[in-house]
# Entry
Amino acid sequence: MSAGHGSGGHGGRPRRRRAQHEEEHENHERWAVSYADMMTVLVGLFIVLYSISQVDQQKFEELRQSLALGFGNRAPSVIEGSDGALTGVEAVEVTPDLSADVGSWTAAVLPRPDGLGEDGLTEEQRRYALAAAELDRLETIAGQVRSALAGQGLTDRVRFRVTDRGLVIGMVADDVFFAADAAILTDTALRVIDTVTPVLLATGDELSVEGHANTMPSLRYPTNWELSADRATQVLRRMVEVGGVPPNRIVAAGFGDARPLDDPSVDPIVANRRVDVVILSGVPEDVRQLLPVLAAAEGGVG
# Structure
C-alpha cells in the first residue's frame, strides 16, 4: 500500500510540474498573437491608404502626350545618350509612344496653333475646297439636264444659275409654261418637267419647287401669292405623281411677286411668270455661301 502510495505520489508530482510549465509557456507567448493581429491590421490600413493616394501614371502620361501633340510639340519619349557618363548606353523608353493611338482624336479635338489641319489646309482653304467640289457636282447635274433637254429639242427652255442654296433650274418663257394669270401646265411645260425629273431623281438631293408671278394683279386668284403657289404645286404634283419623286424629298412654295428675277435681257413681266426648281445643296451653310462667288469667278453654270 505504502509502495503503491509512494509510487503514485512519486508519479503524480512530475505531472503537476509539466502542467504548470505548459500553462506558464502559453501565458508567456500570448502577446505575440495580439501583436501579429495588430500588425496585420496596420499593414492592411497602409495598403488601402497607398492605393487610394496612388496617381494613375499611365493615364497621366497619356494626357501629357496628347496635350503635347495637340499643341504641335511632340513630348520626348526617350532619353538619348550623351557625351558624358552615359556614352554608349542605349536609349531607354520612359513614356510610351502614343501618337498612333491618340493622334487621330487629338487632331479633331485640339486645334493646331498654326491654324492648319491634318491635311495642311487652313479652315478657309478647306471651305473653298469643299465649295469647289460642290460646284463641280452641281455643274455635272446641270450638264446632265442640258443633255436630256437637248435630246428633246428643249435646251433653250430653261436657265441655270447657282445661288447660296444650290442649283436653280428656272423655267422662264412667255406662254411656254404658263399662260398669263394661269397655273395650268402647257404641253411644253409637261415635256420639260418629264425630261428633267429623272435626272433630279437620281441625284438624291432635296428639291424645292418655287412659284413666282409678275407684278400684274391677278383676276383669277385673290392675290399673286395664290397664283404663284398654285403654279409651284402643279409642277410638284407632276414630278411626284408622274416622275416618281418621293414626297419627303420635295416641297412647294409660292413667293408671289416678292422675288423678281433681275434679268435685263428679258421683259420683267415675262421673266417672273415662272417656276424655279432648286436642287438644295447639302453642304454646310458657310460653304454654300461661297458657291455663287466661285461660279461667278469661273463663269460656270449660266
The domain at 123-298 is CATH 3.30.1330.60 (60s Ribosomal Protein L30; Chain: A;). The beta strands are 78-79, 92-93, 158-163, 166-172, 206-211, 250-254, 274-280.
